[in-house]
Amino acid sequence: DGRIAVREETVRLGILGTARIALGAMIPAASRTGAIEVTAVATRGGKRSRDACKAAPGAEIFAYYQSLLQSTEVDAVYIPLPNSMHVEWTLKAIEAGKHVLCEKPFSQNANEAEKAVKAARESGLTLMEGFMYRLHPQTLRLEELLRERTIGEVRQAMAQFGHRIDDPEDVRIIGALEGGSLGDVGCYCVNALRLAFGSEPVRASAFGRFAGDGSDEEFAGVLEFDEGLGFVSCSTTSARRERLEIVGTNGRITLNAPFRADKAGGTIEVQQADETTVEHFDEDEPYKAELEEFARAIRERRDPVIGPREILGNARTIEALLKSARAGGAALELRPTGRA
């Protein structure tokens, strides 16, 4: 189908930047799988360069992102840069012939997401969004329960994820870098609601409390699906909380740690009439599973689990929610995405 495969069994990965998630999660995860080898890291130098050398001692260190993209020792790149830089560097990586795993949210703009998906398709390259929770055994089990219609037809789903970020210099809350609670943690909620209904929302309405630089600090939204309603609640100024509840015609599914079960494990509780069952899940290694899925998709020349269709659906939904909140809660129709 014109897709570009890698010559070796192990995908050689370059990382743009030294974000905490890159050094603390992705590089250690790569060291525990034979599917991925971190061969290059681009960093500005100084302490970050030393940190990169310590985390990935076998990797070549580049002073510039573009220099890494030109390396013949790199098959694919991981992009953990601030949100506003995701599409820009994805397009540059694709132009350089590299497969891309980009951190969530891939984009908060549907048109930009479509440009990247189109570029990847035309270049025969794999494009994946970094929602590692989707590869956790807990989420895989949730998908199984939904496919089996364990609770009947889904009518409502409520997703919440919030925490407090106190550092005003944290890129996750800087408006100019497309930071804010929806982009930081609310995007998980959006993705989970789309998963719960198995379809795309048709209308969105939202309210938010915005900081002076335009970033949303508190956010609440409603998504209308053909089958029912989904509710998003997220924050970067509150105590930590995460929960997903899916209500169907015949029961209810509740997850107490739907997005970060890797921290301390999680549970899935299924309630049907007078019967309640609870399944427990360990922390597991979703970042390792994410890298392995990325590598498999490249080798098998197919879309990854969180590939173009998910990227477009997430982007158009996030964009509509933000536009609604900035318009005082006006209900907005969601336009269909381009071809995934």
TrEMBL record:
Bilayer-crossing regions: none
Keyword terms of this UniProt record: Oxidoreductase
Entry's Gene Ontology molecular function annotations: nucleotide binding; oxidoreductase activity
Keyword Oxidoreductase found: yes
Residue ranges constituting the GFO/IDH/MocA-like oxidoreductase domain according to the UniProt record: 140-253
Record Pfam families: GFO_IDH_MocA, GFO_IDH_MocA_C3
Presence of the UniProt keyword Acetylation in the record: no
Chain ranges of the Gfo/Idh/MocA-like oxidoreductase N-terminal domain: 12-131
InterPro entries per UniProt: Gfo/Idh/MocA-like_OxRdtase_N, Gfo/Idh/MocA_domain, GFO_IDH_MocA-like_dom, NAD(P)-bd_dom_sf
Family according to the record: Belongs to the Gfo/Idh/MocA family.
Name by which UniProt lists this protein: Gfo/Idh/MocA family oxidoreductase
Source organism: uncultured Rubrobacteraceae bacterium
